[in-house]
Design goal:
heterodimer; A: two-stranded antiparallel ribbon; two-stranded antiparallel ribbon; B: two-stranded antiparallel ribbon; 74% helix
């Protein structure tokens, strides 16, 4: 009882921190916090595909790119923000669905390589189709959105916009994983053949896991474009997909809060290490390696293990006490 | 026609290098379920070991030997002991992520410690052009191709004809049975890592004179090695050879005849097509699908 109260208090503290701390930050700090919120959304999508449904994808970065380009191209054409946003989500949903088809045929590392190839292909399209994407020059000159008469032009305003989007995405994922859908995803991850024999339509759920995860990537991308106010191909290389995958695994794949933590490490840690100049990525990579060697199930995995170990200890202590009284009797 | 011959030859030369890298990649996968996402960086690093040795004033052959030795120590022994051994029991994915982090680590370390610029790298093979029947042929391409082929043949001989090689194959096929039959499985796995390190070092010394030694050189090479390994067949050395050569030729011809912008896309389409329609690869056996 008191523990759940403690957890609630801790949660409230974090939410309060997310709301109030950026008020004290400079422009760049706010940008980094907004980026964290956006990357968390993208990582949450990947966590659905990978952590819950067990389908390896190295293409999440490409979906962020698709979302960002959709919004940038349409906003430059004068479409406002909301229609492009909906379209970005719809496009990534459909493309993600299609990318799911290979997953019906191949698994594990093969699937990883198909999605890797897809990711690189999408990058080539961004770079080469200049009539649409302006190639390496990139797209600029579109504005941040306004909603209900409120403008989100200033960095801090847009930060709250991304934070609201993150809250929305979290609520959606929290609902999804508790719904029959979430259970079907878990069944797919744990034992697809058993799931199939129990009447779960594994084919549909595999495709759905890809489609929903990708659509969240697209949603993140749709927010990324107005955050940076400039879209070019460089952020959407394979490296972004690998980074997002790293965030999910480091945070704890299959845990609801894993992406939050993973994105915090993936986005904020390199910034804190800036004092180390060129060395910061080296330290970051070292940190990730050591962390994974110590906790291969991610940070939340080790916390869960600790709780499980404590419960086991408590249970065996109770058992010992019970058997002691039995012996006496 | 002359153009085509040269393109083909250049393709075979790069393809043979891809094959070396892809063979190492499949060897690691077979013996220890390691999907090495840092394989491209493994090809980039040895050139810098050798460059460092050259800068100290060693002659080229000695510097190459030092580079080979260092890469076998660092990319072979240390890679296995420090990263693969502790991670292996946790499954394929965490280890794969670890190698992704390793690739960032290697790339950034070379960039910070050595240089962010591309460095020239001396070739130990003859260069120049040769005229046969009115066609000019690049000796460099030819010698790279022949040299890489010799390495592959030597490796195949080692694996097929020697006792150690056969024990390594047994380890790759079924470590449990191999152990029962008295094969020192652990040592064989270590040999695999050493062979991989030697292969990437040789590939590095072959390709760096052509494309320069640069910290970011591993990105395309790593991708090429994945594609070659999968197109050929993930569980077959033969497959890696075929995949590598095919990829090199396709890559070079696509650059000339399709479009330079989308030259990178052609191998990717090849990869997707092969995975979807023949997932075991062109030369591979069908792998039992894990449930």
């Amino acid at each position: 009882m008191s523990r759940s109260l403690l957890l609630k208090g801790f949660g409230l503290l974090i939410v309060a921190g997310l709301i109030f701390i950026p008020l004290t930050l400079n422009r760049y700090g706010i940008y980094i916090m907004s980026l964290w919120a956006i990357m968390t959304i993208a990582a949450m999508g990947l966590n659905l595909t990978l952590g819950y449904a067990g389908q390896v994808s190295l293409a999440q970065g490409a979906f962020v790119g698709l979302g960002a380009y959709t919004v940038a191209i349409m906003m430059s054409a004068g479409f406002g923000f909301w229609l492009p946003l909906v379209l970005a989500i719809a496009i990534t949903f459909v493309v993600g669905w299609l990318l799911g088809y290979p997953a019906l045929r191949v698994q594990h590392h093969y699937l990883a390589f198909v999605t890797l190839a897809f990711s690189t292909l999408v990058f080539l399209v961004f770079r080469n189709e200049e009539w649409l994407t302006k190639g390496i020059y990139g797209i600029m000159g579109f504005k941040r959105p306004t909603a209900f008469g409120v403008s989100f032009q200033k960095p801090i305003e847009f930060y709250y916009f991304t934070l609201a989007a993150l809250a929305l995405a979290s609520a959606f994922v929290a609902w999804l994983v508790r719904s029959p859908w979430g259970r079907a995803f878990l069944a797919l991850r744990e034992n697809p053949i058993r799931a199939l024999s129990l009447g779960v339509d594994t084919r549909r759920y595999t495709l759905m896991a890809f489609a929903i995860g990708s659509a969240m990537g697209g949603f993140a991308g749709a927010l990324y474009a107005p955050l940076v106010e400039f879209v070019d191909p460089t952020p959407f290389t394979l490296a972004l997909s690998l980074n997002l995958l790293m965030m999910v695994i480091v945070g704890g794949s299959g845990f609801f809060f894993g992406p939050f933590l993973g994105a915090a490490i993936g986005v904020l840690l390199p910034e804190w290490l800036r004092f180390a100049h060129g060395w910061y990525l080296i330290i970051y990579a070292l940190f990730v390696m050591i962390l994974l060697i110590k906790t291969p199930t991610g940070i939340l995995g080790i916390i869960e293990n600790m709780i499980a170990a404590r419960k086991t200890r408590a249970a065996s202590a109770a058992r010992a006490a019970a058997s002691a009284t039995l012996d006496k009797a | 026609m002359m153009n085509f011959t040269n393109l083909l030859l250049a393709g075979l030369a790069t393809g043979a290098i891809y094959a070396l890298v892809a063979i190492g990649f499949t060897l690691l996968w077979q013996t220890s379920q390691t999907i090495n996402f840092a394989q491209g960086e493994f090809v980039m690093v040895p050139a810098f070991f050798a460059l460092a040795a050259l800068n100290v004033g060693m002659p080229l052959p000695l510097a190459l030997l030092v580079g080979l030795g260092l890469s076998m120590l660092v990319l072979g022994v240390l890679f296995k002991r420090l990263l693969v051994d502790p991670m292996l029991r946790h499954g394929v994915l965490p280890l794969a992520i670890c190698t992704m982090a390793l690739s960032i680590f290697l790339k950034e370390t070379v960039k910070e410690v050595y240089s962010a610029e591309a460095s020239r790298f001396p070739s130990f093979l003859p260069g120049g052009n040769l005229s046969i029947f009115g066609t000019t042929i690049s000796i460099q391409s030819l010698s790279i191709f022949v040299f890489a082929l010799c390495v592959v043949v030597a490796l195949q001989m080692f694996l097929m004809r020697t006792s150690t090689g056969r024990q390594m194959q047994a380890t790759a096929q079924n470590p449990y049975v191999a152990k029962l039959l008295g094969v020192p499985v652990e040592r064989m796995i270590l040999y695999t890592f050493l062979i991989n390190a030697a292969l990437v070092a040789i590939a590095s010394f072959l390709i760096s004179p052509v494309y320069l030694a640069k910290f970011s050189a591993g990105e395309t090479l790593g991708l090429a090695a994945f594609i070659a390994a999968i197109v050929g067949g993930f569980n077959q050395i033969r497959g890696a050879i075929v995949g590598g050569l095919l990829l090199g030729v396709v890559d070079n011809l696509a650059a000339a005849y399709v479009s330079t912008q989308y030259r990178g896309a052609v191998p990717l389409f090849l990869l997707i097509a092969v995975i979807l329609f023949r997932p075991q690869g062109l030369m591979g056996r069908a792998e039992e699908r894990t449930v």
